[in-house]
Amino acid sequence: MKASASISFRSARPRVLHFKRVLRLGLKALWLHKLRSLLTMLGIVFGVCSVIAMLAIGEGASHEAQEQIKNLGSQNIILRSVKPPDEQKASDRGSQSFALQYGITYADIRRIRGSLNGVEIILPSRIMRDFVWNIDRRVDSEIVATVPWYPSMRNHQVLAGRFFTDQEMDNRSSVCVLGTEAVPALFPLDSPLGKDVRVGSAYYRVVGIMAPRTKSTTDETERRTTQPVGNSMFIPLETAKTRYGELLRKIRSGSIEQERVELHEVTVKVASPEHVAKTADAITALLERHHKKKDYELIVPLELLRRAERTKQVFNIVLGSIAAISLLVGGIGIMNIMLASVTERTREIGIRRALGARRRDIVAQFLAESVILAGAGGIIGVLLGVFIPLLVSHFAGMKTIITVWSPVLSFMISAAVGILFGIYPARRAAQMDPVEALRHE
Amino acid sequence: MTETTTNEPIVRLADIRKAYQMGRVAVTALDGISIDIAPGDYVSIMGPSGCGKSTLLNVLGCLDRPTSGNYFLGSDDVSRLDDDALSEIRGARLGFIFQSYNLIQQLTVLENIEVPLGYQGRSDEESRALAEELAALVGLEHRLHHRPFELSGGQQQRVAIARALVNDPFVILADEPTGNLDSASGAEILRVFDDLYERGKTLILVTHDENIARRARRAIRLRDGRVESDVRFTAADSD
To answer: How far is CA A6 from CA B75, B93, B114, in A?
Structure first.
């Protein structure tokens, strides 16, 4: 009786329903409840979109900060003169006219140069604020008195003309290099090269224009390092020394304040980045010995860079958590709708089971729906997530960077959410007893 | 085994028992049923409610497994198969017709007829052609793209019949197929059944209506989970 099985029930049927057919079935079911599908999808859309957009904005901001720190030079150590806090109070209190002396001195530089090996170039600079004049036009600018190797050491390019030379430094020549922003204010019509500008009673010949620098006044590192910005003027240090002496006068609401600061800022270049930390410690020790008060500060760009990288890591972890939570919420939304849909379609499940659908066919059918929901949500989210940073860049002028992996990863995660949160409802549908399901009203 | 000496039965139930656990009480729904059905036969199963009709139909339809006994469908014992194998058997060898038609509401007539073929792994073109052929057979060739709610009860049941035929099953199982229809539509459906019988299909029809049962060639009457009577009508009886 069993011998002549004409049709084997273990026939060569596909393991699951044909892929295309499952997909079509899923799309059809979702299309039937357009609004419901759309709303369910939105959870994933916003999750994916916000992750990509936030990552792009964060990446852009962090890139910008790192770029600025890199401009300071990762091999550099920057020493700055700071007004000691108690002295500051004293000068605020009365209208004393004695000259307050503080800060880094030429002697400090000699000591550093003399006692530390592997210290390459030392870039001293003084910074003063004054008006720069061209006949009747004036610009309130930062006058930076420095050395000829400033551009190479601080990664600051010369846009036009040249920086002043060693010879001009030695000769105490009256030459200057203008920052880009000062140029249009002083010379709106023609090139300033070869022209003269006036500071106080002294005239300087303009020999070059510096390239613009990214500036963002809100940036912490920027403020701390007094990075010269566009609105500045560079003159040879020796010229400044003979012309202005060491005394700085500030006239503030009737009272005259005098400060004696030899150097405002000194940049020390260390031979290799590995030695930066050690050299910084050595300099601190050296300065501590000769300064009674803490009238200087040490800025190590490499350390700032590392700190920025750590900050970025923390930022990424926070973003990752937000992403995980939003996708979790989206996934729960999908699961909720799928469970409702399974209950609603109990009868259909019974019919399909009676007509030959195996459990895995039912699983495939419902899983397809949740994966389509999550996948489509993911795609729309990626598109929006790529589009929003472009808008932000365009309208807010913020730099945004979309890394390749962020859309790819977030799409993959959203698809995974679809599978993960679709499995339970799909299995529930498949586990129904066909007899019970057929009886369901 | 009296009548099937020459013709091997297509359905053979041997001492089928089915017991349910309802709370603390064990309920015996089928209590040793043995039936042979020959290919091409037209059998009605009758009995009062609670006699085990539905349970028997579920077992026959491979929707439920008997507690004990053997069920041969074709030449294979299907009484101990796992869920996947039973699903394949349902898809390949059985056709279902329900009282409430059980069409999938969001699918068109054609798509409803195609459903079993999808689970057989048939190609789209083949399914479409076969579905159109069967729709024509039940006289619905002009309603192919309508949805169930746009059709009358009789038309819906004809779609269900086409769907039950589409996989060329060994046996067609009909559960009160005229129960939801007015007498005219019911008569029409019964004519379709007669026609199927003429074409050599094996039909098993569950009903509680004497008049409908009389249209079959053989009537099996159940009582308390047992076969009470098994009557074969002569041609004169049925007409």
So the answer is: 8, 12, 24
The answer on pLDDT for A92 being more than 60 is no
Q: Which domains are present in chain B?
A: 11-238 (3.40.50.300)
Instruction: Give residue for tokens 């049941």.
Output: B157
Interface of B with A in 33-62 (CB under 8 A): 58, 61
For chains A and B, what is the number of CB pairs under 8 angstroms? 99
Lowest mean pLDDT among A258-272, B137-151, B157-171: A258-272
Q: Are residues A143 and A231 in the same domain?
A: yes
Count other C-beta atoms under 10 Å from residue A201's C-beta.
6
Paired residues of A177 in beta bridges: A208, A234
Contact at CB, B75 and A435, closer than 8 angstroms: no
Closest CA to A141 of A182, A197, A191: A182
> A140 and A47, same structural domain?
no
Please list, residue by residue across A90-121, b when 16 or more beta carbons sit within 10 angstroms of its beta carbon and e when fewer do. ebeeeeeeeebebbbbeebbebbeeebeebee
Question: How many angstroms separate the CA atoms of B159 and B209, rounded?
Answer: 23
The token pair at A35 is 């609004």
Band of residue A224 on the pLDDT scale cut at 50, 70, 90: very low
Q: Could you tell me if residue A8 is inside a domain?
A: no
At residue A421, φ and ψ (nearest 5 deg) are -85, -10
Domain count of chain A?
Answer: 2
- The answer to whether residues A153 and A267 touch, using CB atoms and an 8 Å cutoff, is yes
Domain boundary among A212, A243, A271: A271
Identify any residues that bridge with A248 across adjacent strands, giving them in sequence order: A259
The answer to whether A342 touches A349, Cβ cutoff 8 Å, is: yes
Residue of A nearest to B8 (CA): A1
Residue A353 with chain B: CB contacts under 8 Å? 63, 87, 90
**A349 occurs within a structural domain:** yes
The ipTM assigned to this model is 0.93
More confident residue, A271 or B103: B103
For the stretch B11-52, pLDDT in tens is: 999 999 999 888 888 888 999 999 999 999 999 999 888 888
In the predicted structure, residue A8 carries a pLDDT above the cut 70: no
Closest Cα in chain B to A364: B119
* Burial class of A280 by CB neighbour count within 10 A (0 to 12, 13 to 18, 19+): buried
Distance from the B218 Cα atom to the nearest Cα atom in chain A, whole angstroms? 24
Per-residue pLDDT tens over the stretch B179-222: 889 999 999 999 999 999 999 999 999 998 888 888 899 999 99
**Distance in angstroms (rounded) separating the CA atoms of residues A130 and B175:** 101
Task: Render pLDDT for A15-43 as a digit per residue (tens, 0 to 9).
Answer: 555 788 888 889 988 998 899 999 999 98
Question: A337 lies in which domain range?
Answer: 19-66+308-439
Instruction: Give the E-state strand segments of B104-184 in sequence order.
Output: 171-175
Residue A87 has what pLDDT? 53
pLDDT number for residue A244 = 76
Q: Both A32 and A89 in a single domain? A: no
In eight-state DSSP terms, residue A96 is -
- One domain for residues A106 and A249: yes
pTM for the model: 0.73
Mean pLDDT of A319-336: 87
Between the CA of residue A436 and those of A347, A439, B47, B173, what are the distances in Å?
A: 9, 5, 22, 18
Residues A204 and A137 in one domain: yes
Q: Which chain A residues contact residue B106 at CB under 8 A?
A: 28-29, 32
> What is the pLDDT at residue A376?
94
